[in-house]
Amino acid sequence: MRIVMLSSWVASGHVGLSAGAPMVQALGHEVVQLPTVMLSNHPGFPPVSGRAVDVAQLAGMAEALEANGWLVGVDALLTGYLPSAAHVEFAAALAARLRARVVVDPVLGDVPKGLYVPGEVAEAIRDRLVPRADVLTPNLFELSWLTGMPVRTLAEVTAAARALGREVLVTSAPSGPGRIGVLRVADRLSRWSAPMRAGVPQGTGDAFAALIAAGLPVGAALGHLAALVDTSLNTPHLRIAESARDWTAAPPIPEDAQPLDAS
């Protein structure tokens, strides 16, 4: 597959493009990377240096890529961190231009911090980008913000996801005590879950969205990610390259066998 990824990039570590691209490349896919932000490292490791990439620069990069024939035959577009409303408009225009499957990871915020993008960015993602998505991968906070609906129970999460009118893969979905999971809300409800782990490095959400953009079924994506997490616990960054032999060969995580009651 050929996948265009539009998100943040760090020189050291594995978040944004620096997580998603090497994951899907290790599985044999081609990636075209368009960085919305270029930083030395994740801001959780101060000091940090860098800034947003100007939208005009991104537009010029896209024009050059197209002129060279590298935006032909694109199978999927993945959008992640977008620092301004203008970046969201660029992402929406790119989605229309490529006419590929669109996976939107709506990077808005999380609990307990709330929004960590400006309100106008969150609104632009909701109003301009979500309607173009084929698949959305929000966490619980993002799902609630996008819909204005509560997400305290499985029934509420399901109702909020269905309100978006798209296939939704809800990360951090309710999965029972001591467990974390992904809930797929589409033609039917499906859930995959695993034990919660301490010491997981940043970037797992970016990696998951990239694997979904690469066309992997949810269980297969989570199998790769769980194996990667196992080898990366209590380390500063995901060990994508160092443990590639292990996580690329990992089997899928099976779907939860217990029927879901979203009533």
Task: State the gist of this model.
This protein has 263 residues and is of the alpha/beta class. It has helices at residues 17-26, 55-67, 85-98, 119-129, 140-147, 154-163, 204-213, 218-232, 244-247, and strands spanning 2-10, 30-39, 50-52, 76-79, 101-104, 109-110, 114-115, 135-136, 167-173, 179-185, 189-195. The chain is globular, with a radius of gyration of 17 Å.
Computed over alpha carbons, the radius of gyration is: 17 Å
**Overall SS class:** alpha/beta
- Ranges where pLDDT stays below 50 over 5 or more residues in a row are none
Instruction: Assign the CATH architecture.
Output: 3-Layer(aba) Sandwich
Cα(first) to Cα(last) distance is: 38 Å
CATH homology group: Ribokinase
**What is the mean predicted local confidence, pLDDT?**
95
What share of residues are in beta strands? 15-25%
Provide an overview of this structure:
Helix 1 (17-26) crosses helix 7 and helix 5 (140-147) packs across helix 6. This protein has nine helices and eleven strands. The chain is 36% helix and 22% strand. It has helices spanning 17-26, 55-67, 85-98, 119-129, 140-147, 154-163, 204-213, 218-232, 244-247, and strands spanning 2-10, 30-39, 50-52, 76-79, 101-104, 109-110, 114-115, 135-136, 167-173, 179-185, 189-195. The protein has 263 residues and is of the alpha/beta class. The longest helix has 15 residues, at 218-232. Strands 3-2-1-4-5-8-9-10-11 form a nine-stranded mixed β-sheet, sandwiched between helices. It has a single domain (2-247), classed as Ribokinase (UDP-N-acetylmuramoyl-L-alanine:D-glutamate ligase), CATH 3.40.1190.20.
